[in-house]
Amino acid sequence: MKKKRKISIKDISKELGISTTTISFIINNKAKNRISKEVIEKVEDYIEKVGYKPNTTAQTLRTGKSKTIVFMAEDISDPFFSAIAKEMEEIAFENGYKIIYCSTENKKERALELLDLFKDRQVDAFIITPPEGFKDEMEKLIRENKQAVMVFDRYYDDFEHNYVVLDNLASSTRATRYLLDNGFQNVGFVGLKSDISPTLERLQGYQQVMAENGQKDRSVLIPFDEVKTLTGRKKIYDFIKRNPQIDSLLFATNSLAISGLKTLKEMSLKIPEDVSVLTFDDRDLFELYSPPISVISQPVSQLANELIKGTLNLLESDFKESSKFRKVLKGQLIERISSSRVSENNSI
Q1: Domains in the chain, start-ordered, CATH in brackets?
Q2: Bond into 272 cis (ω within 30)
Q3: How far apart are CA 185 and CA 194, in angstroms?
Q4: Quick one: which of 11, 5, 328 has its CA closest to 169?
Q5: From CA 219, how far away is CA 230, in angstroms rounded?
Q6: Strand runs (DSSP E) across 118-194, as ranges?
Q7: pLDDT above 50 (res 272)
Q8: 149-175 confidence digits (pLDDT tens)
Q9: Which of 207, 131, 201, 134 shows the shortest CA–CA distance to 170?
Q10: pTM of this prediction?
């Protein structure tokens, strides 16, 4: 069977009696204020009728744009990052862009390999959740100025860059103060042992409120690669054993909270009767858990919208200094049974 020949811009030009330049402008969304509405509609209707698909390789060479954005997350399987990715995909698609997803697993070497791979493929922009110890590499990537770069979920203090983040300090401060206001005296904090900004700020917010209220800092920090392991759970177990007076726990990430919930179950500690629980980042599991777990929820839809809006702004402005895009968004405290104060008659 003879393969059907692919339709070209020249074929469309010949059929409609319209120049290839005009058709190219319409296909590449550059027809506004240049070409009449009637001609645009005529070409678009014909393209839809014949099922014309532009040659993406030739289009990239001609325009210098691949219409692709890379989202380099810490872990794309994490419900928080996957929810962000899904919402960004919808917005990007509406604006003519596709998104490629990948995970660094918080490893510097892996992030460098992925950057080299995608820079060779001429992607237009990067949205990156940088791993630990990646500041110099991020600064170099931004300085090269060949792609738009948006940093997500964390940021750096000592060089200019674009970012969209949660207000982690204010969120942690609010969460700790909420537990103290609920009558809990001995709030424990389970965080990540890391130098990334959200980790540092969540610990800082906890310590700040505890100090202001004359309370002792009771915290433990777990290395990233141990969070989901038996070693990480053992550290949480030992921490609780060393601090039997702890009456509430604030977890800095949803992964830490899951390890913590498993540990509390192994220790036969009831929530909230024996210990109250509050964590960062909502997920279905926390709402369905018995009892439901209180959270500081990140505004997923707003974060995704700001990330894509900011990235598209950078692309349209050719990443000029004046186009710097920085957004710090507020978290939402969602109160559930896990953070309730149990009265002396054992009713919640």
Answers
A1: 9-54 (1.10.260), 68-165+300-330 (3.40.50.2300), 168-298+333-339 (3.40.50.2300)
A2: yes
A3: 27
A4: 328
A5: 19
A6: 125-128, 148-152, 162-166, 187-193
A7: yes
A8: 999 999 999 899 999 999 999 999 999
A9: 201
A10: 0.79
